Amino acid sequence: MKEIKIDTEYIKLDAFLKWAGAVGMGSEAKIVVQNGEVKLNGNIEVQRGKKLVKGDIIEFDGESYKIV
After folding, report:
1. What is the mean predicted confidence (pLDDT) over 42-55?
2. pTM of the prediction?
């Protein structure tokens, strides 16, 4: 599991995917989220603007990321 540090109170899901390097562009993040390819804390998440906070776990493309 990769730990990704954020310096803000929260980060939106699409921005997080780009920040973590899971996708190359924001438009790609929008597509993978809308297609149900991303899990947040074990559940499929389709809201690309979902606010993520420290402790959340994101799963995408065989990788797991934890926000710290």
Report:
1. 97
2. 0.91
